[in-house]
Design goal:
binds phosphoenolpyruvate
């Protein structure tokens, strides 16, 4: 049985006190969520330590939103995977479309980042997905396949136990437009097949694939009911504990 996950990506939102309050509210409401659903909050770097303290002893896990592509040294402004592990992160998101679009995140850099994160004991939530132009040109399968091959095909079956894939159609992120359940399932199944081609059916069956893109309590049930959708990476709706937990209750 593969893991069900609902992960909140806070992006560059909330001050530290607001973030701590949000994390505490998520913990307070988490008891209603079935035990087999993993809850994760991904926060800005500044929030990681105080949020780690706020969620200590709870079922909520901590994630970063990014990490450096270098191990350590003279890289001003960067935060390493080892630093993330040292403040209690269990996960890091990598390859979010906003990082690909605004910060020059390439697949090659993502290989380095993934390698460093795994070496430091972090699990990786790797984002893939096409933009609107690519979707309209019917290139969404090809784009996701290339991203997966360029990054994940460099890793081992053992590594795949520590990698979650998030399919995030860029045209659905923060836009209020959600992929239909059929559109999402079609590409999730394709992603699983792409994983199977390299790592085999058994690994593909165990790989958690999340949907991201304007997921909210009102549409999560239909999305999560799909065979190959194992949960969600949630942006906007993760900033309200009740909405985040509402999504987690949608399995
Ligand atoms: C995201 O950025 O990971 C995301 C899914 O955002 P939103 O839910 O706001 O579309």
């Amino acid at each position: 049985m593969r893991k069900k996950i609902v992960a909140g990506n806070w992006k560059m939102n909330t001050t530290v006190p607001e973030g701590v309050e949000l994390a505490k509210a998520v913990v307070a409401e988490s008891g209603s969520v079935p035990a087999d659903v993993k809850l994760i909050v991904a926060t800005p770097f500044t929030h990681l330590y105080p949020v780690a303290e706020a969620i200590k002893g709870s079922r909520v896990a901590l994630s970063a939103e990014n990490c450096a592509d270098k191990e350590k040294g003279a890289y001003t402004g960067e935060v390493s995977a080892a630093m993330l592990a040292s403040v209690g992160c269990q996960y890091t998101i990598l390859g979010h479309s906003e990082r690909r679009q605004y910060y020059g995140e390439t697949d090659a850099k993502l290989v380095d980042k993934t390698r460093l994160a795994l070496a430091c004991g972090l699990d990786v939530i790797l984002c893939v997905g096409e933009n609107l132009e690519e979707r309209e040109a019917g290139r969404h399968f090809e784009v996701c396949e290339t991203q997966i091959k360029n990054v994940l095909y460099n890793f081992s079956e053992e590594d795949m136990k520590h990698i979650v894939i998030a399919y995030e159609p860029v045209w659905a992120i923060g836009t209020g437009k959600t992929a239909t359940a059929e559109q999402a399932e079609e590409i999730h199944a394709f992603i699983r097949k792409t994983v199977a081609e390299k790592f085999g059916e058994a690994v593909a069956e165990e790989t958690t694939i999340l949907y991201g893109g304007s997921c909210k309590p009102s549409n999560a049930k239909e999305l999560f009911a799909q065979k190959d959708i194992d949960g969600g990476l949630i942006g906007g709706a993760a900033l309200k504990a009740a909405d985040f937990i509402g999504i987690a209750l949608s399995f």
